[in-house]
Amino acid sequence: MARMNMIEAIRDAMDIKMTQDSNVLVFGEDVGYFGGVFRATAGLQEKHGLHRCFDTPISEGGIVGIAIGMAANGLRPVAEIQFADYIYPGYDQIASEAARLRYRSNGEFSAPLTIRTPVGGGIYGGTTHSQSPEALFTHIAGLKTVIPSNPYDAKGMLITAIEDNDPVLFLEPKRLYNGPFYGDPHIPSVSWAKHELGEVPEGHYKVPFESVRKINEGSDLTILAYGTMVWVAEAAAKEAGVNADILDLRSLLPLDIEAISESVKKTGRCLILHEATRTSGFGAELSAQVAEACFFSLEAPIVRVTGWDTPYPHAQEWAYFPGPKRVMNGIRKVMGDS
Amino acid sequence: MTKKSNQSRLYVPEPPFRPGDTPDYSHISVPADHSPPRPDPLCDDHETVEHATSLIRVLRFNGEAVGDWAPSLTADQKRKGLRDMMMTRAMDDRMFNMQRQGKMSFYMKSRGEEAVSVAHSMALRKDDMTFPTYRQQGILINRGASIKEMMCQCLSNAGDRLQGKSIPVLYSFRDFGFFSVSGNLGTQMIQAVGWGMAEAYKDSDGIASAFTGEGATAEGDFHYALNFASTYRAPVILNVVNNQWAISSFQGIAAGEGETFAARGSGFGLATLRVDGNDFLAVYAATEWAAERARKGGGATLIEHFTYRKEGHSTSDDPTKYRPENEPEVWPFGDPIDRLKTHLIQSGEWDEERHVAQEEECKVEIRQIYKEAEKMGTLSSATNVNDFTMFEQVYEELPGHLQAQIEAFKEEL
């Protein structure tokens, strides 16, 4: 076992796959010599060579486009999009091409590529460095969208993504790179070095996508969360004094709906959290699926706690972010206390 | 009084002729015996700057092959090229008519552009991956793919290798170096660059060749492709088939009035060739040059194939609504099949009788293959495609939610 923060765990996953498989290439803006703006690829070029880890032009459509061509030709590209906020020029290549290639060629061609990209707020990034666009991708048949919440999962899930024969969008909650974030910026941040999930096995291991992680076992209510909100949920539940089943979804598509319904049927109450804007957010899908699967077990309406339906503001970062206070209000609402 | 001012006015380009006009293209100079010289395929890209604005031609209208681009092809190879073009046209005609009879949803002909696909394919190695649009079916015919399988794909029947997942003409033939055609235009240019980069990474000397029409050069993907191809010296050929029309929009709408499409490559440091796309030998020569350059590490070439779309965009299009009906006939570059035929006759390798016989032969062969294909179903009768296959190949393995949807679909039956 080794102590790793999330960046180190992600880098370790790429390093292991690059060592094992010469078809794994890593590229993106500033990822080569410099090692990426978040340092996720630091040292990979030096260790594996210029051909294995290199810089690309500032062109997200181009980055995804070459990744598709390479993947169809037998390579295992791992492309970095510097911020998820920049992914939109690559959207057509992801939605119409990578996700559709296997289908439209009836399996003759496929695009086993991984796209890594940092998501979410909490770092004063404003409208262009804080977005959570997951719902724009979970609507795409043929694509998998996953999001880890800790170093252990990040490494195991990234290895799963690279080995997956379908295109995977791997979202990295950037506020969690250095440590769990409990939603209150005034509390000094803790590092993964002090958290059990910062304990990461050395070498190769996989975390399957369709497998929720239970952060806490409880019977009062079920909280569905992913990414940064997993830790906000844990802190808010504690503060609210409720004993919650907190499910870290890990993978949004495919979704482990079995585990989710099992929990909601047990607790009868469901709170859904995400940082992304509310309307048509992934919470809407979760809410619908929970209602379809568990309606007769529900004792209260499903409640969503999300970011507001505004662009992600700068100075109002913490007014926008669905922090512990908003989550606690959500808990009270779903518990019928307000 | 004419208003004179030095103020900007919104300019919207219009083609020179619309329905009802008498098209006159005498102002387009058809270079008779001028061709820019053929530089070494590994030359500096700057040496091809003039090739982007002139026009590489080999065939004169009298059938003579002239200039230093004239490729050394045997008479058999040329006759094979002629036959492939004739088969392509015969198949297009048959499929168009069958679409009109309701046998399939849609079809797209490549009439007038057969040299672009057939000669290009002939100058490549069979394992070079092409990333075609929907108007390069000639590549498949030249490479010997099964015409029956192509037809079955258009008919979406039991013989369709794609099991009804794609609309007609969007073929996928991996074993014939034919990448799955996307209906989203321009997207495949940059994918071809990635394919080529992978070839180079694997130390293979395979190359990729991508196609777009002139209209879709306006998409970002085209510029991504030029940029990445130049940056990584990718072994690719980037082809712009300038057939003058993008559905109803003339090439001026894609910024074709001021500068040639080949010239787009110069700013990216790519080799650039502009070739008479109705000249089989010139297309072959330009492709051969670009393929050698790519294979030997010289990087990518942008080729503009200057041609003309003689028919509608697709079976859903009526070109007489936006251009003069006789424009295809007066377009001053002739027909690719006629021009190669004239050349072969002029060089004593062919004659009118054999040509007429071959035309009939192609028609009969296509008719017979079509009959066989139709036996496996049509979209209008029974397609014989199992509906449940629509859930397959979304992912490699069927995920839980799709399994649940299969169960839900069963309830509809």
Q: Are there runs of chain B of 5+ residues with pLDDT below 50, and where?
A: none
Share of residues in helices of chain B = 25-40%
Structure classification of chain A:
alpha/beta
The CATH topology of the largest domain in chain B comes to Rossmann fold
Helix share, percent of chain A: 25-40%
Shape of chain B: globular
Q: Examine the secondary-structure arrangement and name the CATH architecture of the largest domain in chain B.
A: 3-Layer(aba) Sandwich
Mean pLDDT of chain A: 97
Summary?
By secondary structure, chain A is α/β, with parallel strands linked by helices. Chain A has helices at 6-20, 44-48, 60-72, 91-98, 101-104, 134-138, 151-163, 229-240, 257-267, 282-294, 317-320, 324-335; strands at 2-3, 24-28, 53-55, 76-80, 114-119, 144-146, 168-173, 199-200, 213-216, 221-225, 244-248, 251-253, 270-277, 303-307. Chain A has two domains: 2-200, 3-Layer(aba) Sandwich (Rossmann fold); 213-335, Rossmann fold (3-Layer(aba) Sandwich).
Describe what this molecule looks like in 3D.
Chain A is α/β, with parallel strands linked by helices. Chain A has 2 domains: 2-200, 3-Layer(aba) Sandwich (Rossmann fold); 213-335, Rossmann fold. Chain A has helices at 6-20, 44-48, 60-72, 91-98, 101-104, 134-138, 151-163, 229-240, 257-267, 282-294, 317-320, 324-335; strands at residues 2-3, 24-28, 53-55, 76-80, 114-119, 144-146, 168-173, 199-200, 213-216, 221-225, 244-248, 251-253, 270-277, 303-307. In chain A, the strands form 3 sheets. Chain A has a 7-stranded mixed sheet, sandwiched between helices. In chain A, helix 1 (6-20) packs parallel to helix 7 (151-163). With 413 residues, chain B is of the alpha/beta class. Chain B has 2 domains: 45-382, Rossmann fold; 387-413, no CATH class. Chain B has helices at 75-100, 114-122, 137-143, 147-155, 187-201, 220-231, 280-295, 327-330, 336-346, 352-374, 400-412, and strands at residues 129-131, 208-213, 236-242, 245-246, 249-250, 271-276, 301-306. In chain B, the strands form 2 sheets. Chain B has a 5-stranded parallel sheet with strand order 1-2-3-7-6, with helices on both faces. The radius of gyration of chain B is 22 Å and the shape is globular. In chain B, 53% of the residues are buried. Classes of the chains: A alpha/beta (338), B alpha/beta (413). The interface between A and B is large, with 45 and 45 residues.
